[in-house]
Design a protein that fits this description.
Length: about 210
């Protein structure tokens, strides 16, 4: 019985990992159940044995990737603990933009940008996972003099919402040529409240990400 359960769990994880990789490269909207089955080398029936629909797979991938994201953040925090608050926040931002886990989540957002309930859940989860982390880094920066703001908790929440949702062209629609203006406004706004973290390298990474 235990062996059968282990095989079932292994198959479920194989399906989710395959789907996540396809979401990264194609987006969830353009990924079909047949694509997942063919890439995983299994039948569509095997997928339907574990998941009733593609939506169920999408939400399962999202949950698993959020858990992975939390673990990655813990690792990044440990690896950057000797940096100043400003340097630590910059490094974690750069790591996040290069993260395959974060890209899988982005690949899902594109399909559900019109689903208000889904986006609201995503926003809440994003703040739940990241707000206290960013706030603690800001406070660290305030203590070491690299960052200064009167509202670390509020700044952390606004920062996450803007970076992860407002800057996402699919969620808050924007013409591609307008995105650089958003980048520069975000840089201006964060600097004006004492969070001067958007250096040239970060701005370039944001620009490159928006083109994918």
């Amino acid at each position: 019985m235990a062996q059968r359960k282990d095989k079932s769990q292994a198959m479920r994880e194989k399906i989710l990992n395959t789907a996540a990789q396809l979401f990264i490269h194609k987006g969830s909207e353009k990924t079909s159940m047949q694509d997942i089955a063919q890439t995983a080398g299994i039948s569509k029936g095997a997928i339907y044995h574990h998941f009733k629909s593609k939506d169920e797979i999408v939400f399962a991938v999202m949950r698993s990737r959020q858990e992975m994201m939390e673990e990655e953040i813990k690792q990044w925090l440990k690896a950057t603990e000797n940096l100043t608050g400003r340097e630590q926040l910059q490094t974690i931002l750069k790591n996040n933009m290069g993260s395959q886990t974060a890209r899988a989540i982005d690949g899902i957002l594109g399909e559900y940008e019109k689903d208000a309930g889904f986006i609201l859940t995503m926003m809440r989860d994003n703040l739940r996972i990241g707000a206290s982390v960013v706030s603690d880094i800001i406070k660290k920066g305030m203590a070491d003099g690299s960052l200064q703001t009167q509202y670390p908790e509020e700044a952390a929440e606004v920062f996450l919402l803007l970076v992860n949702f407002w800057m996402h062209g699919a969620v808050f629609e924007s013409e591609p040529e307008r995105l650089p203006e958003r980048f520069h406004f975000l840089q201006f706004m964060m600097t004006s409240i004492g969070l001067d973290i958007f250096d040239d390298e970060l701005m370039q990474l944001f620009s490159q990400k928006s083109k994918h």
